Description:
Blueprint: H1 2-23, E1 40-49, H2 53-59, E2 60-61, E3 64-65, H3 75-79, E4 83-88, E5 91-93, E6 105-107, H4 109-117, E7 121-123, H5 133-146, E8 150-152, E9 154-155, H6 158-164, E10 167-171, E11 174-182, E12 195-196, H7 201-213, E13 218-224, H8 235-247, E14 251-255, E15 263-265, E16 270-272, E17 277-279, E18 289-300, E19 303-316, E20 321-324, H9 325-328, H10 335-351
Parallel strand pairs: 1-4, 1-17, 4-7, 5-6, 7-8, 11-13, 13-14, 14-16
Antiparallel strand pairs: 1-18, 2-3, 9-12, 10-11, 15-16, 18-19, 19-20
Amino acid sequence: MKTVGSILYLLCTSLVSLWCVTAFIVPEKPAFKALPKPERVSIIFAGDVMIHTPQIAKAKRDNGYDFNPCFKYVKPLFEKADFVVANLETTLAETPPYSGYPSFRSPAQLALALADAGVDVAVTANNHSLDGGAKGVGSTIDILEQYGVKSTGTFRDSVDYKARNPLWLNKKGLKIALLAYTYGTNGVPVPNDVMVNLLDTVQIKRDIVACREAGADCTIAFLHWGVEYSQCVSREQRAIAKCLHNAGCQVVVGSHPHVVQGVEVSKREVTIYSLGNFVSNQRMRGSDGGIIAQLDIEKRTDGCQYWLDIIPVWVRHRDYAVMPISAVDTIPLNWDERAAYNLFMSDCKKLF
């Protein structure tokens, strides 16, 4: 019995000891893994790049043309963005003659200056797309490519159309489709051997669907539309924007009026009705500047969300320097320049 009792005593003692040890062991907390912060892609949209005859003369040098001074004040802004998209409202050529309105033909060095400033994409669908005919379409695309600037909206042929319509912009896991269209080409028929995207809502809706089926997280339609020199958004613009948004296009960006028009922004959709002029020799009220629209896109599990920042830019005509507010407020202007700038900014403040 003593033997049995001893065994039972030892067993109970061991169990109690085991319980005491385990009772006071503090369990390790599971490792906390913070969810990765969603990445944002920043796209800057700049307005109409128009090169009139006085601008060509101002850029003339002994060894060619230099347009770099035009963009020195916006270059720091552009360098911070993932993509910069501008409306190129001129054709490009390697050799003279060069011309301004009504048939734009600009030196190839303009593309070099845009690239150096940080412009990644030139939209080429506008009413001046065919100012140089089929040859002008091809040379413009070639020169842009030569300097590393992508483009869409006009195409050499059907093969080129399939390659660059839409133009895909991929960054940080975000897949963006950029489409571009124009209301017309100043009555010039589109030659058989080139293609220009015309503003046909039926075709655009097909393109939007194709972008979605190809895996686009965001589709942007850059439209050349509206009434020139009118700061009022037309009923047609509103109807087209609504149509495209309903078809699945999240972002609509406009050019052509040469003055700034308003914007409509929500977390899911953005409409910028007119960016105005980026650089030009136009001087009538409202046309001596425009806006840089910085769009931040964040991809989430339930779709993309959008944030829009508007930066007015004004053109100092003595040297055609495009000047954001940050530059104008630190650089001396003469009385006439300051008055023109103040009037432009006053009009912008009424819109935003």
